[in-house]
Amino acid sequence: MARQRVIGYTRVSTAEQVDGFGLTVQEKAIRAYCKAEGLQLVAMLSDQGQSGSNGLDERLGLAEALARIERGEVSGLVVYRLDRLARDFVLQETIYQRLTQKGVQIFSVKEP
33: burial class by Cβ within 10 Å (0-12, 13-18, 19+)? Predict the structure, then answer.
């Protein structure tokens, strides 16, 4: 049986986190999670120094991930924590709902 194809998505809010360990920690955790869960990680996309409250016009990594999901290239999205999708809970839930209604699975490394 083919492994589920997923995209990993990372985000840090500040320029300091870009140069620090934020993105690296998230990416390593996502790669380890995919390996442990038998998921085929086809791409890692990132938004560096972008607030989770910014729209998709400024968060090009998330916009690209959503576009690839819409095109059917993958059937899952893996994030370090759900707040990487958006800081605003309503926006986070809107994205989550939009994807799950399309049958897309969202995996969070740190949350069940």
Answer: buried
pLDDT along the chain (112 residues), means of 10: 90 63 88 97 87 63 92 95 83 87 94 82
H helices present in the chain, as ranges? 15-19, 22-37, 60-70, 89-101
Beta bridge partners of 78: 8, 107
**Nearest by Cα to 44 from 58, 64, 67:** 64
Tell me if residue 91 falls in helix, strand or coil.
helix
Instruction: Note whether 39 and 3 are within 8 A (CB).
Output: yes
Bridge partners of 77, per DSSP, are: 7, 106
Q: Backbone phi, then psi, for 68, in 5-degree steps? A: -65, -35
- CA 74-76-79 angle, 5° bins: 125
What is the DSSP secondary structure assignment for residue 45, as one 8-state letter?
A: E
- Residue 23's CB is within 10 A of a number of other CB atoms, namely 20
Cβ neighbours of residue 21 under 8 Å, at least 6 residues apart? none
